[in-house]
């Protein structure tokens, strides 16, 4: 039995969003393709209508795309309620999809978005902050789909949770995401290893290595300044032999991984 059997929501936040339109008789695949094309051509109003037709017919990537559009306010006013509902449609219908399926990355991303909504709640709605539910959702996406964003969020939860703090578990999940090239997970793992914590022995060279990798691979201009600052702070207090060894290991890892 997969996660879908136990995953559902009682939140009918926007019933109109699940009502089929008579115009939805067109192929959902064609509607999705038309919507994607129109979106990148800049006709976002028409694109959203096409994507909505595909989503109403159960097209999971169209549902995910609409969730993303309403979450980010891309061409429409931001609306977390609508975003939540579209992500929830994906999660409810596709939780047991094979991890290697074409839709798997989008399904996993929908779970990560839902986990984040449960972590913080949606103001003035029935979606209240629920750390336990967020952890369950992140755990499913991290373990079943192997999603690095979910693994990173789960690692953060195990580090930051007041009642369920578990640095050893945090290190495990962060390492999985770090090895997949997740720069924030690399940096957080690096900080954890450089300093050490309960059940996580201090490994200064490995920590500085991951921080150095994260600094070199992190996207620029996307709120990742903390990665540079964390790496510089660790580098400033490391010994010269630790610096040399960490930089060498970081360069070797980057060369093998093919980035940047």
Automatic annotation (TrEMBL):
This is Tetratricopeptide repeat protein. Gene3D superfamilies: Tetratricopeptide repeat domain. SMART domains: SEL1. Pfam families: Sel1 (PF08238). SUPFAM superfamilies: HCP-like.
């Amino acid at each position: 039995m997969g996660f879908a059997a136990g995953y559902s929501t009682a939140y009918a936040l926007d019933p109109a969003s699940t009502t089929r339109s008579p115009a939805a008789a067109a192929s959902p695949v064609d509607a999705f393709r038309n919507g994607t094309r129109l979106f990148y051509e800049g006709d976002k109003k028409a694109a959203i209508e096409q994507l909505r037709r595909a989503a109403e017919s159960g097209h999971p990537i169209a549902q995910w795309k609409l969730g993303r559009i309403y979450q980010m306010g891309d061409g429409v006013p931001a609306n977390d309620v609508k975003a939540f509902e579209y992500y929830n449609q994906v999660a409810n219908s596709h939780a047991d999809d094979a991890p290697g399926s074409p839709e798997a990355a989008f399904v996993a991303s929908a779970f990560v978005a839902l986990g984040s909504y449960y972590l913080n709640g949606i103001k003035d709605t029935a979606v209240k902050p629920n750390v336990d539910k967020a952890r369950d959702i992140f755990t499913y996406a991290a373990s079943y789909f192997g999603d690095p964003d979910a693994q990173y969020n789960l690692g953060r939860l195990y580090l930051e949770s007041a009642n369920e703090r578990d640095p050893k578990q945090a290190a495990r999940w962060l390492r999985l995401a770090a090895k997949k090239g997740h720069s924030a997970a690399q940096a957080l793992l690096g900080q954890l290893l450089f300093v050490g914590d309960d059940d996580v022995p201090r490994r200064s060279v490995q920590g500085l290595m991951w921080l150095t990798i994260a600094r070199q691979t992190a996207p620029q201009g996307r709120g990742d300044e903390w990665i540079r600052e964390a790496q510089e702070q660790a580098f400033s207090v490391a010994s010269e032999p630790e610096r040399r060894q960490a930089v060498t290991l970081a360069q070797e890892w980057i060369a093998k991984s093919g980035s940047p």
